[in-house]
Amino acid sequence: MSPIPDLNQSARDGLRAQLDDLVKKDTDEQLQFFLKSFIMQLGDEWKIVVQLCSHFKQYLADTCNRQDLDVVQAAEFLQRQGRTRTALQRKTELQDIDLNNDNRIAFTEYLLLHYKVMVLTSFFERHQAQPTVDLTDEGVGLTGVGDMLLQELFKVPVGVDAELMRAIEEFVAKQKARDAKIQELTEKAAQGGVKGMTAQTELNMVKNEDMTEMNRISLTLEAAKRRAAKGGRSVDQEAQRIKEEKEREAMLAQQAELERQAEADKLKASRAKLLARAALFEKPN
Known about the structure:
By secondary structure, the chain is an all-alpha fold. The protein has helices at 9-23, 27-42, 46-62, 71-80, 87-97, 107-114, 116-126, 146-153, 162-189, 193-207, 212-230, 235-282; strands spanning 69-70, 104-105. The protein folds into three domains: 1-158, no CATH class; 161-232; 235-284. Residues 228-248 are annotated as: Disordered.
């Protein structure tokens, strides 16, 4: 086991400056950064992180916040996600992850609390060191670990799979566009009338759309994991792997296109029905 090097004040200030820059970005960009930093450690849990992002953005809107939460709101959000703590534990842990000391909790800071044990486990494994803090009980009550959390968040990536990073970027961009579409349709649906009914129909379809993109990134993630686990391969093995991955991606793309066309046909039929109904009401006596 190796000793963990001490963090000097200059390095500590540098990490906090990086955090300041990150939390100024929108929530989706913070999601992307966290996924890129911990996608291998998260495994299938990455899908939960995406859900947390949607919940966080909705809670921001519900509380009339644009970018981050105050500590009281953050404590309530934490409780809503099933992270049960006493009032004192919530207060001290939130203070501990308010790493830029602005009394606001951005999505990145929340994730460092939500996934504290995972991030710290990664930190100690990277340093090949025994944990110096108690990582049991989901890290409840654990404080004084801010420096370690930031070091792991902003660690220099080693052996990063470029294809996986691109897949994350594409996924987050599409997720962001989808959320914007939902917001737009929600506002139109609230206006009522034929246009409102049409918007509501389309909104329901968008909300219930399949998880093709998540399936695709899951395949990419699993492929990256296999490459990391198995290391070197023969030329024939690598060629076979690439062939199989391309076949899976082609299958998913075909499935996505069929589903997209089916949804488009369904929406077209629904609009035609609404217009026909509207015409009946507007028909002169």
